[in-house]
Design brief:
The protein is of the alpha/beta class. It folds into 2 domains: 198 residues, 3-Layer(aba) Sandwich (Rossmann fold), CATH 3.40.50; 243 residues, Rossmann fold (3-Layer(aba) Sandwich), CATH 3.40.50.720. The protein is built from 18 helices and 14 strands. Helix 9 packs across helix 11. It binds nicotinamide-adenine-dinucleotide and uridine-5'-diphosphate-glucuronic acid (UGA).
């Protein structure tokens, strides 16, 4: 079959894989190729054991793979053939040099720009899919257009707003698609090419066009606002614990105000995920670069509050358990940074585990999807940590169970059986407020939840 356009995506990660799978599924007339330098990842995308767990993803991949969706490590051939190149490589926080710990590390990003230039023999549209500091497109454009072969590239910013665990639903029916381009005839034409791809399944009124810098900055701003809501509700959860107010009641009461809205007001052990912290720190760095120190401090507080919430959770555990957890078995229910994903990047569970190990606790971790990643994350930590697929086995002989991920299956566990197998007094710390605390207290647990008064038998 002759395809109408050849689309390439560089980077087959949590964004590149699902995004391209949905584009290929929705647009059978496009040839979509996803390339990555990691051969193991590409092999997994070509199998039924995909490299990431995402509900509904395998069905989408199976429908399109081999028809108009291809995964390969051959980056140069992919670039040569492409009309449009999405770049979805990782942009982690820099760990070295100027801006270490805050600025985005753009080395993978810049490398792809140079690869695109080296392997192109005709003009192409290059789409920023990765989350990038505002004005990165300028650097991209300079690198790409500084060639002596008369090649011209249009750079478009099309940030991705999907959340893990709901990626397929988010991609199939997005709140909006944002496409930023240069305010020139060529820029507008490039923007339209990308908008037309999405318009195959997204209604035009949800496709927003803007200038390049607005698109880049809107992505960082959206993540900052989302994370800010969580830090705001978590800050109030601490006050609830001091005053007998109940954080779920407060969140409900304020969320019914249509100006505030109910979503992203779930108090928790702290937000995780690969992006919130990195993107806010990047925003902080950019603000400082422009001399906006007050703005930088304002957003930095969102990250600090999150770190405090994670530490506060461990402090509550230690103080509740008579100021010592040394030698006590503690079962952590959930290690993924949220439910329905195996991803553990920046998961609150990592900090909770580390701090419990510093207190010499014996930590047993269970999770339905994230145990392999948990093992990798904790490879180099010292202390008594083990991994157990079965939550009942993890809890047996434990002094405490702490829920760190809101997996649905944890609500349906037989807590009577769990209680009977635990050391008494048995403690339950619900870092996600998903369990029936009154029922668990009646059963015999000492229950601590986020933003609620403790329920104690002594
Ligand atoms: P990821 O680490 O899962 O995937 C990135 C992939 O790029 C890796 O497989 C890596 O091997 C590959 N890569 C790096 N350099 C390459 C090169 N030169 N050539 C070919 N492949 C290369 O990252 P991710 O979670 O998919 O995130 C990608 C970008 O999207 C980041 O900027 C992130 O901030 C943004 N984002 C992520 C999410 C999310 O939910 N994870 C959501 C929205 C936006
Ligand atoms: C987030 C954004 O929601 C996406 O729009 C964005 O594209 C993505 O970051 C990104 O740029 O990477 P994600 O991190 O996958 O998506 O997941 P979220 O649902 O936002 O959850 C992030 C963290 O906040 C999780 O640890 C979650 O448990 C926590 N959270 C979320 C709360 O503690 N309370 C809430 O009310 C909501």
């Amino acid at each position: 079959m002759a395809f109408s356009q050849d689309i390439l995506c560089i980077g087959a990660g949590y964004v590149g894989g699902p995004t391209m799978a949905v584009i290929a599924d929705k647009c059978p007339d496009l040839k979509v190729t996803v390339v990555d330098i990691n051969p193991a990842r590409i092999a997994a995308w070509n199998s039924d054991d995909l490299p990431i767990y995402e509900p509904g993803l395998l069905d989408v991949v199976r429908r399109a793979r081999g028809r108009n969706l291809f995964f390969t490590t051959d980056v140069p051939t992919g670039i040569r053939a492409a009309d449009v190149i999405f770049v979805s490589v990782n942009t982690p926080t820099k760990t070295f040099g100027e801006g270490a710990g805050r600025a985005a590390d753009l080395q993978y990003w810049e490398k792809t720009a140079r690869e695109i230039l080296a392997n192109s023999d005709r003009p192409k549209i290059v789409v920023e899919k990765s989350t990038l500091p505002v004005r990165t497109a300028e650097a991209m454009r300079r690198i790409l257009n500084s060639n002596d072969r008369g090649l011209r590239f249009d750079v478009v910013s099309n940030p991705e707003f999907l959340a893990e665990g709901t990626a397929i639903a988010d991609l199939e029916s997005p709140d909006r698609v944002l496409i930023g381009g240069e305010e020139t005839a060529d820029g507008r034409r490039a923007r339209r090419v990308i908008a037309d791809i999405y318009a195959t399944w997204v209604s035009r009124d949800r496709i927003i066009e803007s200038n390049l810098w607005s698109a880049e900055l809107s992505k960082l701003t959206a993540n900052a606002f989302l994370a800010q809501r969580i830090s705001s509700i978590n800050s109030i959860s601490a006050l609830c614990e001091k005053t007998e107010a109940d954080i779920d009641e407060v969140a409900y009461a304020i969320g019914t105000d249509s100006r505030i809205g109910p979503r992203f007001l779930k108090a928790s052990v702290g937000f995780g995920g690969s992006c919130f912290k990195k993107d806010i720190l990047n925003l902080v760095y950019i603000c400082e670069h422009y001399g906006l120190h007050e703005v930088a401090r304002y957003w930095e507080a969102v990250v600090k509050m999150n770190e405090w919430q994670q530490t506060r959770f461990v402090r509550t555990m230690v103080s509740a358990m008579f100021n010592t957890v040394a030698g006590k078995r503690i079962a952590l229910f959930g290690f993924a940074f949220k439910a329905d994903t195996g991803d553990t990047r920046e998961s609150a569970a990592i900090q909770v585990t580390r701090q419990l190990l510093e207190e010499h606790a014996s930590v047993v971790i269970t999770d339905p999807k994230a145990l392999d990643n948990a093992r990798r994350d904790l490879e180099h930590v010292t202390g008594d940590v083990s991994f157990e697929a079965d939550p009942y086995v993890a809890a047996a002989g434990a002094h405490a169970v702490a829920v760190l991920t809101e997996w649905r299956e944890y609500r349906d566990l037989d807590f009577r059986r769990i209680l009977d197998s635990m050391v008494k007094p048995a403690f339950l710390f619900d870092g996600r407020n998903i369990l029936d605390h009154d029922a668990l207290f009646e059963m015999g647990f000492n229950v601590f939840a986020i933003g609620k008064s403790p329920r104690l038998h002594f």
